[in-house]
């Protein structure tokens, strides 16, 4: 009897796990749809002060401690080659790049 109860509970847990996962993930996916062409932004663990020369399709601003483990303030640039660049907001080239993006209608979203 104990064996059948344990098997039943295991089966129930395995059945419910995908449903719970879908409940947590789906609001994030639907919230980001239509806002930018690429995937949801990554978590930047560190940010570079170096510039990059690649066309940007989406821009995000990650504030300090936005997500657990994402402790740096950074701009996240999603490029046409599907790369994400984490840039230090204090880098010399950031204001000029943000202004050029705004002229193209791309605004950084705070995440």
From TrEMBL:
Gene Ontology CC: extracellular space
Signal sequence extent: 1-22
Protein origin, superkingdom: Eukaryota
Ranges of residues in domain Chemokine interleukin-8-like: 43-101
Record's protein name: Chemokine interleukin-8-like domain-containing protein
Naturally occurring in which organism (per UniProt): Sparus aurata
InterPro entries linked to this entry: Chemokine_IL8-like_dom, Interleukin_8-like_sf
Keywords, in A-Z order: Cytokine, Signal
Molecular function terms from GO: chemokine activity
Keyword Transmembrane helix: no
One Pfam family recorded for the sequence: IL8
BP GO terms, sorted: immune response
